[in-house]
Each structure stands twice: as structure tokens, then as C-alpha cells.
Amino acid sequence: MMRLPWFEFRAPRSIAEAARILADEGPQAMLIAGGTDLIPNMKRRHQSPRTLVSLRGVRELRKSNGTLGAGLTLSDLVNDGAIRERYRGLWQAAAQVATAHLRNMGTLGGNLCLDTRCTYYNQNHEWRKAIDFCLKKDGDVCWVATASKRCVAVSSTDTAPALIALDAKVKLVSTQGEREVPLVALYNNDGIDYLTRRADEILTGVSVPLGWSSCYWKLRRRGAFDFPVLGVAAAVKLAKDGTVEEARIALGAAASRPFLVDKAGEFLKGKKLTDEAIAEAGALVASRAKPMDNTDLDLYWRKDVASHFAAYALREVRGDDMREARLRIARQVL
Amino acid sequence: MNAVRIKLRVNGEEQEILFHSYKTLLEVLREDLNLTGTKHGCELGECGACAVLVDGEPVLSCLTLALECEGRSIETVEGLAQGTKLHPLQAAFADCGGSQCGYCTPGMLMTAKALLEAEPDPSRERIREAISGNLCRCTGYQQIVDAIERAAAEMRGTRA
Amino acid sequence: MSTENKRFNVIGKARRRVDGRAKALGQLRFADDLVLPRMLHCKMLRSSLPHAVIESIDVTRAEQHPGVHLVLTGKDFPIPFGIMPVSLDEYALAPERVRYVGDPVAAVIAGDEHTANEALDLIEVKYRPLPTIATPEEALAHPEPRIHDYGEQGNIHRNLAYEFGDVEEALAKSEHVFEDTFFFQGNTHLAMEQQAALATVEGDGKLLLSTSTQNPHYLHRQLSRVLQMPASHIRVIATPNGGGFGGKCDPANHEIVVSKAALLLGRPVKICLTREEVFYQHRGRHPVLMKFRTGVTKDGKLTAMHLQTLLDGGGYGSHGPASTFYTGVLTPVTYELPRFKFEACRTFTNKPPCGPKRGHGTPQPRFGQEVQLDKIAEKLGLDPADMRLNMVTKRDSLTASWLRIGSTGLAECIRTVVERSGWKQKHRKLPLGRGVGIACSAYMCGAGVSIYWNKMPHTGVQLLLDRSGQVTVFCGATELGQGSDDVLATIVAEVLGIDTGLVRCVTGDTGITPIDLGSYSSRVTVMMGNAALQAAGRVRESIAAAASESLGVAPDRVVFSQGRVFAAEDPDKGMSFTEAIALAEAKFGTLSTVGSYSPPRAPGRYKGAGVGPSPAYSFSACVVETEVDPETGWITVPKIWIAHDIGRTLNPVLARGQVIGGVYMGLGEALMEEQVFRRLPPKLSGALVHRIPSLLEYKSLTALDMPEVDVTLIEEPDANGPFGAKEAGQGPLLPVMPAVANAIYDAVGVRIDEVPITPDKVLRALELKAQGKTPRVGPENFPQVPYPAPIRVLPPWEGGDGDELKSPAGEPWRKKVAA
User: Fold this and answer.
1) CATH of the domain at A279
2) pTM score > 0.90 for this model?
3) How far apart are CA B147 and CA B115, in angstroms?
């Protein structure tokens, strides 16, 4: 059986108390919410925090009044009819994270802060020793791109691209105060330093504007368990005649951060979502996908299909019936 | 080294246990409570073999800190039968071939129990979705789906 | 006892398996569920280098770590072991050389796993790295450094060649000759249970090892060898296996280590492998490169086949010598093949050892053969189902290689899946993106010879009955989930006319059960079943003799049915089964009988003729439907139909479960399962590691990826099977992979001549097609392999006698025929 390392355990009851503990303990303390990302990482000795600060007892984080509490589980989101109605892309993303069990445990905040992933990194300590470790943890070389000075581990969160397309903002709280930043600005394109969140900050909630028509398409091998190897989120505002007033397309699992493909959004603005426009926007999206050989499935193929996934997403927000394609790709109707 | 003492409510019974604080619920169930019905296949959240119900929801005990279970209700496969009477799911698994080697069975059963409590009449597709977080290497899942369907009918009292 | 025309009480009825209740309760104790007082825990340190000499190991700091009781290294295990007597090349802990990342080098026994893990970090091993061999091609190109100092030559472990009739002559005369190369990637068993073992010294001073093994008997022998103890002082209990699929057949390092530790410490010692370690223990499907040259007539009958295989064996021998044979020997069983030549070569590489996985050695050539047949059918303008139907092997026939086929239901299997799938309305008729494919297979019901040479039975069963009415059956066979306990209970219950619930099975315990060679090669139903039939028949005779006196009828007029023993002519005249036992116990004394079974002698007499013969062969035919997105190559499998010739169905619930489970595993191998390795840039690193040793990244189908399977059991009773029964555990896996490949061709017109078949390969082939190139992805060529001169044997219909021709290979074939 794999065992966790020893740790101190703290269970604050409020955001303020949690923030105080983080401030006191310094970077040796880590937050734990659902634990579905951190616990496996600790078992594999990616992280060995001296102190775990559990957010489970912080009730404020589970509220959703206007903003979505970071402590809501992914199942909470999936079971919320209003979210399905208003934020379809977020709902589809949450519904496709891992498995039902993991969605019952994992939280929205945890999924947004998910550690970046790489087939050279997400391995047991013994395996990593056999490759003399890697840039992201305990080593000097990035084995994916040996000339790279930067770690290219992949952002593997599903909810982030969905929420970026929806133009969401996140709130970060520390003893120093609180700040709200666009979600897209939470991320750096760096597999190690992938968040702009400071170690003493707590991501407490997400505010998502209304009025977008959205969806999320996830590429993975199987109908469950797997992290995305490509995620395409689209959100549009359409005029009555179908003309695009605003469009935001975000990509996940295509770099060390989820990001917005501005060019595709700008291209679509003022156009109708014709097959031609969708194809062209799909090509723009695909040109920004730079997959590396550090996830499941062939990287060239992942690059090849990016335009198709963008097209699926745009066709869905156009109003096409995509259930058959969904069933084939997601193995379930969403 | 820190040993901690907490109270857990396991299969309806309050238990006070002393355990190493690093342990997950899986380790505490198996090693400190000798409830070895809950299995492990990876200890990393990648197989579903260790699924138990915490406050009625299926979760993975391998990723749940035992420390975080204080005061919560935990159900394991050992609590499923009533005395010597099998739960309808257990009977159906045994009769329909839902269990071959039996190793994924406890996790499957607990997952299915939560499903049927929430949705008494699920379609085969819905059953497949619900158990898609539980890997099985023996059955190809079909007879597991058969078993859950049959148990659902039995529990609805509509079995022909 | 007649196998025909009998109405059965138990056989063929859908029943809860005898161990079903315990499994549904979670009560079954798997190896890692066992706990003993004062138990210690073991963890092993494994090599982080793929190939190296161990210069020194310093365990001082580990030994001094608080809570550590013992540290073992290679010097504690001077005797090598291995599953096959010709490949005793493993040490429980490597003494001087490591051969793959994960090879065990030291072990720590401590009060708990956490402490043992900490101590592993304190062991200092100095390695001198050696150049690594990653592939069979490298193994052929680099005879040095040798991974082992035994074997054929260089890094070739086994190399063999057989020719049954003059194949070149037949190919030259054939109207068409097809030449194709295929590759089958390696994959692993991935049983849900991680191997665990608990060793203890019992009160009588003898060693007891309780472990998740498929083969307690072979393990028992190897323990005796390595520990240098008489086998009578060792008892091995095979705990219920949480899935095996071949992965728990080899005696394993950890089993020997905890045994030794328990003997040294006088305390129970347990180990449970982590999932990553299970990937290193491996012994799974060999990656195999294959080349087929097949001659056919214009109406699609085979004239001759020349098959060459090249196996990637990994770092140790394991079952390799047998695996090498199995990439060829079962090929002629499905279709009439007048002449056959096969050459096979297994190489050593610096990777975890390959061995037996469900289908052992045959899925790979079956894939190639069945895909090639699809190509042949298309070229000749024949329906691939009809073409197969037209050339199935016949009942009571011999193959060119002298395998005796008894019963066969293959034709019925083909007709059934064609009918049920709507084949005639679908094949070559579905719109672009949808297709169907068909493939067939055959598998053995137990190997004709044991792994070590001996003249003793392959299995034994003992029955014990007493006046309380209880029936206890003892057998060394091992329950893996496949239902061997239920087979045992079913046969005994049928013969004695009682309910299976009355039979207590005591199995897989070398201390108290008669020897059974193990749960491998689909041998249990036929072999154990026949032994059970004999034991039960004998005790039935005694009971009938005693009851007949009381009933006043002749013993052969006594009927055993539904828990009663009564007169055939007057069913009211009778007694309960328990009363009948009491009469027999009074008449004969304590009631116990035994049965045993040895397979029939095979007709082949040439060296190597021992691999391939089986008391019976099962047959399967499978149709797979696919949907392939022509834009992305994405593959969906909405439905699978399979018909399996099982001889006789003992319990349809279990039989169907075995068939669906085999289809599931085959579909996983077809679409995603692969055990693959990664080398880092050689200038920077010598690493050669398993790419994905985890349940997340080694992809196995979830409930959402697995379609519904339409199963038909074809009952073509075999004279050698108990009540005519044959195997179901392995055969149904085999046709799935080629049926998927053929269905993909039918859907989008591209050939993927290798597994797994992934969307990127399909898309690449579609791109080739769009460019007007050959729409195929697969191996481009087959390397030069220094196969030996073949052992030449004349087929039965060419005047052969089953022995090899004594004239040297260069001389013409006709000499012997003339003589």
C-alpha cells in the first residue's frame, strides 16, 4: 500500500482562520480541499507539506450566492440545475472530470488549482529516480524538451477553460486582504510556477457573468477517469439573427496554462456561425494548440484534431444537435 | 510520531480508534478496524476498488484522510447485509455473475447502492455511467449492469 | 458415464456460483486481507537502472533504522529459480546483475510499511551501468553484452523452426501467395488485486505461505529448491486470486523473500506489491513481430503457410520457451492447412519479463492470420465468413503438425455470429464510417504435458463424505474468479444428484489438497473436471451398492437425483442422500475416493511435439461492429457478437461471464492496452523505463467504453471433456482483436496491421489513402533472424509417422516419402 508522509493537520473553521495559518506557517503549509490531486501527489512524494490546512470545515467556501464557492464539489455543480442552465460549458466540464467518486470529493477551487501534469512527473518516486528526476521536481532536465529551460507540464483542469470562456473572475484572500482577478490571469505558462496565486492566498470563489451560450468538449481516451488531453470551451453571445456579438474560445490541456484564443473570438465577431466561419475559426484555434509528448495519445494527432474539436464546440453553441458526436466522443450524452 | 484518536461512525456503529495520522480512511478501515472488505487496487484514485459511502455519497477511501472523517457516517460492504439476509444488490451480484474474482465487488456494490438510493429505476446507460469509476477486469461489466438492473427491480418491488 | 442423451440435474442450469455469497459480502479473504499476530511487513528495493552490475550494497544504515527487523540482499538467495526447468535464471534478490528497472535487489522487514519504506531509502547500492537492449532488433544486432549467459546465442533466448511438409514447393504451386507483416504490442494482465503474500512458521515448525498465486504446486517446488528445504516442510495456500489472467503463474521474487524472512525471524511476514511493482512483475503478453506468407487457391483454400515470429521477452526467461512455441503451434487448428512452417525467436531485452497472458502466445499470430484472411477474401472477391466456413478443420482430424482435433463447433460458431449480427446485410454494405469484421479462433483445454517432465497425473481430486451428509471435495486447483470451485462442485453435485450448495470445496492448498498443476492454459474444467468425475463416480458406486441392498434393486438401477437416492423403476422407493451415505459408511467404512487425470498421449513424436497437444480444443467466432470518424480516426465499438464452442455449458452464468470477460479484455488489447517503454536521449541518460506503470495511464476499458456483447454458447460435446465440457476462459479473447481490425477496414478502408489500433494510426492511414498511397499502418519489414534449420515432419496425409525426418534439412522432402 502506498503511504502518505507524515504531516501536521489543521482544520480551520473560517477563511480568515485558514489565511492566518497560511501566513504563520509559510510555504511549508498547503491547503487541502477534496484531496483528489494533493493526496496522490503526496503519496508519490511530489509534495511533502509540513502542514495540511483542511478547508473542509470552512462553510463559507461552499456557498453559492452570486459567486460560486470554491469549496463546492464538482458534483455540487453537476447536480445544480441552474448551473446546467446558465453555464452549460462549466456544467459539461465538471460532469466530465475524472469519475463520479472523484467528483464527489474534488472541489471547484481544487480543479482550478490542479497541479500541472506530465508523464515524466506523475510517477512514483522510484520511477522518477530511474530517470534521475526532472525539471519540475528534484531534477535539472525537462525530458519532454531537453533544451527547454521551462517546465512544459500540462494544465489539465477541465473547469478552467470552461470558466475562462465564460469570462469568470476568481477571488483570492489572504491576511493581506483580498483581490479579484480574471481567471485567465490566475495562470502562468510555466509547468512549475503555474499559478499567480501566492502561497498565502486562498481561492475562495468564482464569479461568472450571465448571458453567454457555452459548451465544453473534452478529448480523452476513455469515458471516465482520464484527464483531458485537449479541452475546447466556447462561449458566444448571438444577436437575434445569429450574428456573433461576442465570442470567447479557450483551450485546455494544450500548454502549461489554459488560455483564450483571442484571434478566434475576434474573427467570429460580427459573423454568422456558418460552416465556413466555423472551419476557419477551428483552424485558428488549432494553430494555437502546441501539444507536447507528455500526455496520453499521439501528440501530432492531438494537434490534428484540435480544429475538429473547436468545430464541435462552435456547432454546439450554434444550436446543432451534437448528441451523436457527444456520445461517440464522451461515451455519454451531456 | 503522531497517533490520533477520533470517533468514527462505521456501518451505524460508533467506533473510537487510535491511528497514525498519515493514514487514509482505507488504511484505517482495513488495518485498524479489520474491515478488509474494502479493497485497494492503486491507492491513487485510479480504480474505484476502495469506494465506500461517506455521508451516503460514494467516495474513494484511498484519498480520504481518516482525520477528516470525524463524526461522519461511513458505510462499507460489511454493513450492506441485514443479518444473514443479503442486500438485493448482493444477491443479484451473486446470482447474475456480477462478481467473478470478487475484488472490485465491494466498491461496485457501494457505488450501486448510492445510485439506487438516488435513482430507483436507472437505465442501463445510466448504470454504466455510475459505475464508470470502478474498474473491473473480469466481467466486461455486462453482468454487473444486469445485476444492478435486477436489484433495482427487486427494490422497487416490481420484479416479475 | 455417457456424455449424451442425459437429462441433467445441475449441469446447464443458471446457478449462483458456490463462492458467490462470500464475494458479495466482501467476506472472502484475499492475501492482503490476512493478518497474523506479531506480523511484520516487507518492502523491496528495486533497481533504478535497466542493466547494471551491482558493485556493492551497503545495508548498514537500513539495519540500524528503528523498527527494522531484517534486511535481505542477493547473498541470502544463492539458488536461482524459474517457472520452467530450462530457464532457471531468476534470483529472489539480484546477487550481482540487474536486468530491468524494477528488478528487486534488497528487502527490508519492519514493523510497518512506513518504516520499511524509510529504510529502503537508507540502502546504498553502487551500480556499474551496462549498455541496454530495448528491442528484439537491438538484441539481434548486439549479441554483447549478453543479458544472460545462457540461451541460444548472444541475446537470443529461444530459437526454433518446424516444417510440416515442403512449404516452399506448395507456395510455388499456389495460385496466390500473400505476404504480410504484423505487430502485436505487449500488454499486461492488470488484475485488480495487487499480488500479496504472507509467510509464517506454523506450530509444527513448517513454513506456510499464503499467496495470490495461480499455481501453488509449481511455487511449492520452487520454494523447496530456493530455500533448500524438503517440500514436505512447506505448505503453500493459494488465496482466492483477485484476478490472474496469467500474471500470477510464475513463482515470484516477493513470495520467496517473505518465506525466507519468516523462517529467519520466526514471525509472520507480509508483503503487498504496489501497483507500480505489479507492472514490473509483469509476465504479460509478449510484443511479437510476425510475417506470414500464405498460399491459397483461387477459391480461397489454404495451400501452405510460412509463419515467422520474433518475440520481445524482457529480462528473464519466465514461460518464454513455451511462449515461443505458442506463437506458432496452434495456428493450424482453425482451418485446414496442408503444409505449415513456423520459425520463432525469443530475445532478451532490459525490460520486465514477458510470460503468459490469457491466450498465451496465440493472440498475436491469430491476429495476423485472421487479418490476412480478410485481405485474401477481399482480393479473391469472397465473403470472409463464407471463406472461413469453407475450410474449417474437421471433427476427429489431425493437423499437418500432428495435433489431434476432437470436437469442433467452429462452423456453427461462424454461422451463428453471421446470422445474429446481420452480417450479410452489413458487410461491405454499411455507409462510410461504419463497418463489420469477422474473425475466428481456437484454443486448447489444457496443455498436454506438464511444465516439468513426469509421468504422474496432471490433477487429482479427493472426495470425503460422511453420515452428516456433507460432501467435501479437495483439489489443488486455484480459484481466480474464473469459477473453478464452481466447476468442481457442479460435477460432483451432478454425479451425486445433489445441490452444489451441499458441496464444500477445499482447493489450492498444497498441505491438504491433491496436486493439480494450476490454473493456467485453460486446463481446469477438462482436467480437474475429469478427475472429479472419476472420484464422484467411484463414491457413487459405493453408495449405490449399499443403497441397492436396502432398496432391493440392482446397483445400476439406483438413481441419484435432487438429494435423493431411489429405485429407477419406483421413484417413491428410496431414501435421502444422507441416509444413503450412512448405509455406505456402514458397509464400506469411511467414505473417501480419489480421481486423477492425465491427458491422452499426443500422436506427434518429434522433438517439441509436446507443445500444442490438448485433450480438446475450443472454438470461437466473433463479429465486431465499428464506427470510425473519417475526419479524426476516432473509433467507437457499438456492438460485438460472439459464439463460443464450449462443448457443454456447466453453469451458463459463469460461462457467459468468461466469454464476455474475454471479449472485454480482447477489445482493450485491440484499442488501447499496451505495456510500452521509454528510453531517454542516450547522450543524457541511460534510462529505459516503463512509460505508464499506473492504472490511470495504462488504459483499460471502463463501463462506458465497453459495448454490450451478444453471446451464444455452442454445445459440441467433446469426448475428452467432463460431460463434454471445454474451456471458456481464454478462447473468446482471441478473435476480438482481428475482428476489430477487419471492421475498421470495412468502415473506412484502411488496414491497421498492428495492435493497439488507435485513432492516430487510423487517421494516418486515412491520410495515406487520400494521398493515393497504400492505406496501411503497420510494420514495414521483418528483420533477418538467424533461425535454425527446421525440424522437418511429414504431415499425416503425406505418409508421415509423426516423427521428424532424419535426413538433413538441405535434402529434398520426397526421399522419405519414397522410402
Assistant:
1) 3.30.390.50
2) yes
3) 13
Q: Specify the DSSP element, H or E, that contains C712.
A: strand C708-714
Write out the DSSP string of B53-72: EETTEEEEGGGSBGGGGTT-
**Which chain C residue's Cα is nearest to B108?**
C24
In the stretch 217-256 of chain C, residues with CB closer than 8 A to chain B read: 240-245
CA of residue A293 relative to chain centroid, distance: 19
Identity at A280, one-letter amino acid code:
E
C52 and C535 Cβ atoms separated by less than 8 Å: no
In this predicted structure, the answer to whether residue A108 has a pLDDT above a threshold of 70 is: yes
Alpha-carbon radius of gyration of chain C: 27
Give the pLDDT score at C3: 43
Phi then psi for B14, rounded to 5 degrees?
A: -75, 130
- Please report whether residue A171 resides in a domain: yes
List subunits contacting chain A, requiring 3 or more Cβ pairs under 8 Å: B, C
C23: nearest CB among B102, B129, B140:
B102
Domains and CATH numbers, chain C: 40-130+192-243+248-281 (3.90.1170.50), 160-187+284-448+606-777 (3.30.365.10), 457-597 (3.30.365.10)
**Grid cell in block for residue C407:** 470436437
In a domain, A173, yes or no: yes
Q: Which of A123, A221, A329 sits opposite C699 (nearest CB)?
A: A221
ipTM over 0.90: yes
Across A60-69, A84-93, C785-794, least confident range: A60-69
Q: Residues, chain A, total? A: 334
Give the count of domains, chain A.
2
Contacts of A301 in chain C (CB under 8 A): 633, 759-760, 763-764
Nearest to C82 by CA among C173, C134, C148, C24: C148
pLDDT, chain C, mean = 97
Overall average pLDDT of the A196-200 stretch: 96
Q: Does residue C101 register a pLDDT over 50?
A: yes
Return d(Cα B109, Cα B89) in angstroms, integer: 7
- Chain C segment 122-141 residues within 8 A of B by beta carbon are none
Neighbours of C280 (CB within 10 A): 25
Distances A69 to A62, A165, A170, A179, A198 between C-alpha atoms, Å: 5, 19, 10, 15, 19
- pLDDT for C1 equals 41
Say if residue C377's pLDDT is above 70.
yes
C377 three-class SS: helix
pLDDT band of residue C818 (cuts 50, 70, 90) is very low
Rounded Cα distance, A51 and A33, in Å:
13
H or E segment and range at residue C366 = helix C363-380
C-alpha cell at B33: 478496524
Distance between CA A83 and CA A159 in Å, rounded? Answer: 13
Q: Tell me if A8 is assigned to some domain.
A: no
Where a domain ends, among A207, A230, A251? A207
User: CB count, 10 Å around CB of B29?
Assistant: 26
In angstroms, the first-to-last Cα distance of chain A is 36
Neighbouring CB atoms inside 10 A of C284's CB total 26
pLDDT, tens only, C708-761: 999 999 999 999 999 999 999 999 999 999 999 999 999 999 999 999 999 999
CB contact under 8 A, C693 and A331: no
Give the mean pLDDT of C190-211.
98
**What is d(CA C12, CA C14) in angstroms, rounded to the nearest whole number?**
7
- Tell me the per-residue pLDDT of A38-66, one tens digit each, with 9 for 90 and over: 999 999 999 999 999 999 999 999 988 78
For A252, the domain range is 213-330
Please give the helix or strand (H or E) that residue C169 lies within, else none. Answer: helix C167-173
Residue from C702, C706, C758 whose CB has the most chain A CBs within 10 Å, to mutate: C702
C52-62 pLDDT, tens digit each: 999 999 999 99
Residue C794 CA to residue C115 CA, distance in Å, equals 63
